[in-house]
Amino acid sequence: MEIKQATVHWELKMKAEVEQKRLELEKQFGTLTTRHSSYTVELPKLELPKFSGNVLKWQEFWDSFQVFIHKNRTLQPVDKFSYLEAELEGDAKAVISGLELTNSNYEVAVNLLQERFGREKIIMDALFSKLMDLPVSSSTTAKLRETYDTIEMHLRFLKALSGNVDQPHFAFVIMSKLPKIVMARMEEFKDMEEKETVESIRKAFKRYICAQEAGGGQAELTQSAEAQETTKRFPQQKLFSPKWSWVTTTGASLSEMMDL
C-alpha cells in the first residue's frame, strides 16, 4: 500500500513539474504541440523564417534559429530537431529526410544542412553568380539607384565572408552592369589623384547617382551628336576611362579567384 501511494505521489509530482515548465514556456512564447519518439510535449510557438534551400538565405535563417532554438538550454536536442524540421521546406527539408526524430540525430541534421548550404565557397559563388546575372541598367536615375543598391548589398555580403572585395573581377562586374555613357559621365565624379580600384568605382557611381537625384534627373541619358559621330567613326573606342581597361573576365569560380 505504501509503495502504491509513493508511486502515485511521484507521478503527481512529475506531472506538476512538467505542467509548470509547459506553462512557463507557453507564457513566454505561446504553444506548439510536437512529437517525441515515446511521448508528446507542448513546445513554445515561434515565428521563425522558413528555409527552402536558397544558400543566400541560409545565414539569415541560421542566425535566427541559433538565437531562439539552437542555443536555448531549456530545450532538449529532440525538441530543437522538431523546430528545425518544422522550419524547413523544399530542398532543405529533403536533406534531412529519413532521419528519425531523436536527440542524437539533431546534431547530424545540423551538420548536413551546414555542409549543404552553409559552406563559404558555396555562398560566395552563389553571390558572384547573382551579381553576374544582374541585367545591364538603363541610364535612368531610378534604375541606376536600383542597380547600385543591389550591387552594394551583394558586395557587403561578400566582404563579410572574404574580407576583401577590392579585386579586378568585382570591378568588371560593376562596370559591366552600367551603360557606357554613364561610365563616361562618372569620370567627372572621381577624385583626381585616386587610384583605379573597386572602391573608387563604387564611390564615383554613388556620387553620380546622388548628383542625378539631387538634380531631379530621371530621363535616360543619350549621347551627344558629337559622341555619336565619334562612336560611328571609331566603333572600338570605349566611352569610359582607359585606366579601367585592366578589368578582365575569367571563367574561374569566385572562390578560386579569391585565392589568386
Question: What do these coordinates show?
Answer:
With 260 residues, this protein is mainly alpha-helical. It has two domains: 20-118, no CATH class; 121-220 and 230-258, no CATH class. It is 61% helix and 3% strand. The protein has twelve helices and two strands. It has helices at 2-29, 55-70, 77-87, 90-95, 103-117, 120-133, 141-162, 168-176, 180-186, 198-214, 225-233, 254-258; strands at 32-35, 40-43. A two-stranded antiparallel sheet has the order 1-2. Strand 1 (32-35) and strand 2 form a beta hairpin. The longest helix is centred in the first third of the chain and has 28 residues, at 2-29. The relative contact order is 0.08. Residues 31-40 and 221-252 have low confidence and may be disordered.
Question: Layout of helices and strands, plus pairs?
Answer:
Blueprint: H1 2-29, E1 32-35, E2 40-43, H2 55-70, H3 77-87, H4 90-95, H5 103-117, H6 120-133, H7 141-162, H8 168-176, H9 180-186, H10 198-214, H11 225-233, H12 254-258
Antiparallel strand pairs: 1-2
Helix pairs in contact: 3-5, 6-7, 7-10
Q: What structural keywords apply?
A:
mainly alpha; single chain; two-stranded antiparallel sheet; 260 residues
The sequence of SSEs as H and E is HEEHHHHHHHHHHH
The helix count comes to 12
Strand residue percentage:
under 5%
Strand order of the largest sheet: 1-2
Helix content percent band: 55-70%
Low-confidence stretches: 31-40, 221-252
The tally of domains stands at 2
Rounded to the nearest angstrom, the distance between the terminal CA atoms is 80 Å
| Largest sheet geometry | 2 strands, antiparallel
Radius of gyration: 28 Å
Instruction: Give the class from helix and strand content and strand pairing.
Output: mainly alpha
According to DSSP, the number of beta strands is 2
Let me know the average pLDDT: 75
Silhouette: elongated
